[in-house]
Amino acid sequence: MLDRLLSQTAGYIDQYAILPILYHFGWMEWDDLSFDWALICVYGLLAVLLTYAICWPLEAWRPVEHWPTKKTVATDIFYTLLNRVGVIPIFSFLLFYQVQVLFTATLTDYRFIPPTLETIIPPLFGHPIITFLAYALILDFADYWRHRLSHSFRAWYALHALHHAQRQMSFWSDDRNHIFDDLISFLWFFTIGLAIGIPPPPPPPPPLLPQFLESLSHANVKLSFGPLGERLLISPRFHRRHHAIAAAGRKSCNYGAVFPYWDILFKTADFSRQYHPTGDPKSPESLATGTYLQQQLTGAKLFAKSLSR
Ligand SMILES: [Zn+2]
Ligand SMILES: [Zn+2]
Predict the structure, then answer these.
(1) I need a labelling partner for 17 at 20 to 30 A (CA). Which of 11, 60, 76, 224 fits?
(2) In this structure, which ligand is nearest to the CA of 150?
């Protein structure tokens, strides 16, 4: 039912907004993908609205911090819309699709069938739920190391500092990243996706639940999931500890995105009960309170400077 409504909406957007533009510029070769683009936007917008409907009341109920103005939150809203509804998901979908088709075709030419998790681990055949969980765990493990390494290399942290500079951290802050940092993440998951055979192409809907949990973990709310729950899924309190002023930079903790298991396993977990103020005092003010463009520009300059050191 909801699926049909979303497809219909995407159909209208495709017919009345995207296709006319494609025809106008003579880009007809994209017209069999344009419906998927519209569907990505529609699903993305729905996900943002659902996140808002759940996280906003939570933040109003038990906020960690009260802010006189919320100017920098507005910038984070822009990041979220750009990343989840706007051009970036379309771009990454398109790129993944193109490269995966090419990759599969090249491998098949050499009579090599690209791997999937089931061909790598045969007992998974016929167990779709376990396979899904295995994919989720592998991707989460990869994300733990991506994030941990982004704190370990000076140049990489110069980009990631943008995410940590926010002193008004809210459920909108998850997508506040430098575009080069997003690009590295994309390549990181792209390579892993090809290696373990994420089914082609990642069809909409996008992974709604992990994205929701990542937004929630940034929320300005006094919320943990209890001593056991917090060890099963990452809570706002756990991720706030990662954003704490004292944890900014090279020596941080709580790198996980969805599951805290890797932090527990590699001894980087901190389940302390305080709700810390967030931010990175070493980063320039424009990373914290600048406009989107100022933040991107400052991030690029810091990155270039750290490379030339
Ligand atoms: Zn970080
Ligand atoms: Zn974060």
Answers:
(1) 76
(2) 1
